[in-house]
Design brief:
6 helices
């Protein structure tokens, strides 16, 4: 009789233990995730011109970047977009956007080839911090990342599509906005050459 009772109670105790274990770690696991080091670079250099920045190409000047301040993924003071020193290639993306995920590695390769002539900057928009962090880790993304929890940057540019690429000249003026879908290495190189006058 006692033996039969043990056989009945053991599965019940095991089930209860699994449920408690499954529910309890949510708090500590979230804290651990939040404490992971950011894969992205600090944003402080964004307001310093690249070491060997290309001069602004000749032609009609564009509009300045919107008068917005966005938080840096790594913390610190918000970055005023109008203080960002170009030339720069700004990639607006979200982890839940398939074309964004497809093109993000190409932006990392572009950043690796910039050689101080321009900056590559990410703006993570309408996304969760955890989603952005995970994708950055998975793809080895290490260029600076700004956070736009809503879509203030896109609204200021009067755009709503993802992904979005903004090319900014050395004077901080927008030379081109690209929103045609996922970009590859060749298309990115062509855009940088055409709108920033830099060969990569």
């Amino acid at each position: 009789m006692t033996r039969r009772l043990v056989f009945l109670l053991v599965p019940l105790l095991l089930a209860t233990g699994c449920t408690a274990t499954a529910e309890e770690p949510a708090g500590p696991a979230s804290a651990t995730r939040a404490e992971r080091p950011s894969p992205f670079a600090d944003c402080a250099p964004l307001t310093v011109a690249p070491a060997s920045a290309a001069p602004s190409p000749a032609g009609r000047p564009g509009d300045p970047l919107p008068d917005l301040a966005l938080n840096c993924f790594t913390g610190g003071a918000p970055v005023k977009l109008r203080d960002v020193k170009g030339p720069a290639v700004i990639n607006v993306w979200a982890s839940w956007c398939p074309p964004c995920r497809k093109e993000l590695p190409a932006f990392q390769r572009l950043s690796d080839r910039a050689d101080g002539r321009f900056q590559v900057i990410g703006v993570n928009s309408r996304d969760s911090r955890g989603g952005a962090q995970s994708l950055g880790e998975d793809f080895g993304i290490d260029f600076p990342m700004l956070l736009d929890q809503g879509d203030a940057f896109e609204r200021a540019l009067e755009r709503s599509a993802f992904p979005l690429t903004v090319l900014v000249d050395a004077d901080g003026r927008i030379r081109h906005i690209e929103g045609t879908g996922a970009l590859d290495d060749a298309r990115l190189a062509a855009l940088v050459r055409t709108h920033l006058g830099v060969r990569v």
